[in-house]
Amino acid sequence: MTNAKAPLDAATTSWRHTPTKSLDVGDTTFVYRELGPRSETPLVLLHHFTAVLDDWDPRLVDGLAAHRHVIAFDNRGIGATGGKVPHTVAAMAADASSFIRTLGHEQVDLLGFSLGGAVAQEVTLTNPDLVRRLILTGTGHRGGGGLTRMPLIVGKAYLQAALTRRDPRYFLFFNRNTAGRRAATDYLTRLRERTADRDKPISHQARIAQLKAIREAGLGEPHDLSKITQPTLVANGDNDAMVATSQSRVLAERIPNAQLIIYPDSGHGGVFQHHQRFVPAVLKFLAS
User: Fold this and answer.
1) 227-262 tens-digit pLDDT
2) Burial code of 62-85, b = ≥16 C-beta within 10 A, e = fewer?
3) What is the DSSP letter of 168?
4) What is the C-alpha to C-alpha distance for residues 152 and 169, in angstroms, rounded to an integer?
5) Sequence-distant (≥ 6) Cβ neighbours of residue 10 within 8 angstroms
6) Is residue 3 part of a domain?
7) Number of folded domains in the chain?
8) Span 22-75, pLDDT tens digits
9) Cα dihedral angle (129, 130, 133, 137), rounded to 10 degrees?
10) Helix, strand or coil, per DSSP, at residue 30
11) Residue 212 — very low, low, confident or very high, per pLDDT cuts 50/70/90?
């Protein structure tokens, strides 16, 4: 692991070999990785429930980093970042905003997947000057009651995973058909490509805190999404078992300057299953 002052290695072209760096934000040390050409507005990635740095799909990151400066980090209490995970999405968003500003960026583009999408919305609403463009994938809106079912959905998947000796995402992210099983196998294989300098696994405290935050968001007062004036891209699979695809449609309807992409025959991990289509769509959106 290198410190925050280490320069970006111009020769680093793949997520597999990108070094892990650290940055002190107040009394907490955050870990992060960055790659791709330097730009005035980097793309910051916000990840899903239980995810650490090594859970970003290398094809997604490498595809984006071929044209954009990409930054991914472990938020408070996640992976190798210090502290404990807070119990609300609002607190997670405050930590993310502090990390971005401490890293020295006055404005960024945000890509949030699943729980990360909820955090991205909160960052945008509370720090509108910080966000230029917003990408929300596999995520829902505050007050979308279906989110309260997340512990049951996750619990069932973890039981299936234990009985079959598979990763829970095999059941949570992809359809249970031929195309979905193939996509799940390919995705999970890609996550194992990085063999050195891997992140610490998620802790039990982090899992429980994230579930509490998701439940609180599902039961909370809905945000006024009309206040998100940034250009926004919403994407999901057409059969999301974790966060109903209908919530993606609601996001696109309620955010004034939003466009929606729904990928066929795919679920929560639709942007990973269809990464060959999603990456060009994101790059076009960011450049438009």
Assistant:
1) 999 999 999 999 998 999 999 999 999 999 999 999
2) bbbbebbbbbbbbbbbbbbbbbeb
3) T
4) 15
5) none
6) no
7) 1
8) 999 999 999 999 999 998 899 999 999 999 999 999 999 999 999 999 999 999
9) -130
10) strand
11) very high
> Is 208 inside any structural domain?
yes
Asked if residue 62 belongs to a domain, the reply is: yes
Find tokens 């210090």 and name the residue.
82
Give the long-range contacts of residues 18-26, CB within 8 A, separation 24 or more: 19/197, 20/53, 20/80, 20/197, 20/199, 23/99, 23/102, 23/103, 24/102, 25/95, 25/98, 25/99, 25/102, 26/98
Rounded to an integer, what distance in angstroms lies between the CA atom of residue 215 and that of residue 99?
25
CATH number at residue 141: 3.40.50.1820
Q: What is the pTM of this model?
A: 0.93
Type of residue at 92? M
**Pairwise pLDDT comparison (129 vs 4), residue with the higher score:** 129
Q: What was the pLDDT predicted at 158?
A: 81
Q: What does residue 25 show for φ and ψ, rounded to 5 degrees?
A: -120, 100
Residue 279 — very low, low, confident or very high, per pLDDT cuts 50/70/90? very high
Contact 199, 226 (CB under 8 A): no
CB proximity list for 176: less than 8 A, separation 6 or greater:
none
Q: Which domain holds residue 246?
A: 12-287
Tokens of 68: 């954009």
Both tokens of 237, joined, read 């699979």
Neighbouring CB atoms inside 10 A of 8's CB total: 15
Flag whether 4 is in a domain: no
